[in-house]
Amino acid sequence: MTVMTESLFPRAGSAPLTVRDLEGLPEDGRRYELVDGTLIVSPAPGRRHQKIGLALYGILEEACPPQFDVLAAPFAVHIGDSVELQPDVLVGWEQDFTEKDLPEPPVLAVEVLSPSTALYDLNTKKAIYQRVGVPYYWVIDPDGPELTVFELDAGGEYRQVLKAAGDEPCELVRPFPVSFLPSELG
Predict the structure, then answer these.
(1) Residues 67, 57: contact at Cβ < 8 Å?
(2) DSSP category for residue 53
């Protein structure tokens, strides 16, 4: 993961980048995200990462009621002009999506950890999702695989409500009922 501040963008000391500034970036397989006006560049995810994300996408899509939509990366979620993220899997209200992005916080954001992005996913992205009010945040560690589920509490803070690995059942009711084993993800 890299923080970029040169060449394609305004020089240090100028205004922070905006979501609009991301439109001219190359489609080169890397993930470009914007965190409070700072560009974050991550390498393309690996095979196992993708397989796990797509397996979860299939499980969620199968259980998804019609008022929601489930999408897999790359798909942009932008909150205001200075934040654009690309969760590995996301669930949002069907009516909130446009053809090119989700301009509202998703109902559920899921990140599959990679060696290059694990700290970013567990700290920065989690803090942003919490700050913008994403009710449910799931993190998948491919080494189990292991699922950790966070929910916003009444005070707007994430609290861990589930941790399951391997053949431990995940019986979730929010944002909609879904059951699976982490081992089914890969």
Answers:
(1) no
(2) H
Residue pair 139/121 in contact (Cβ under 8 Å)? The answer is yes
**Pairing of β 89-93 and β 136-141:** unpaired
Output the CA–CA distances (angstroms, integers) from residue 138 to 14, 109, 130, 174, in the order listed: 35, 6, 12, 12
CA 9 to chain centre: 24
Give Cα 34 to chain centroid, integer Å: 13
pLDDT score of 78 more than 70 = yes
- What is the rounded average pLDDT of the residues 111-122? 93
Task: Assess whether pLDDT exceeds 80 at residue 11.
Answer: no
- Sequence spans of domains, the chain: 45-185
Tokens of 42: 């991550």
Taking the model in full, what pTM does it have?
0.90
As assigned by CATH, the class of the 45-185 domain is alpha beta
- For the four alpha carbons of 13, 34, 79 and 95, in that order, the dihedral sign comes to positive
> Which amino acid, one-letter code, is at 91?
V
Q: Which token pair is 134? A: 């994403």
**Continuous H helices in 1-82:** 47-63
* 135 and 174 Cβ atoms separated by less than 8 Å: yes
d(CA 32, CA 41): 5
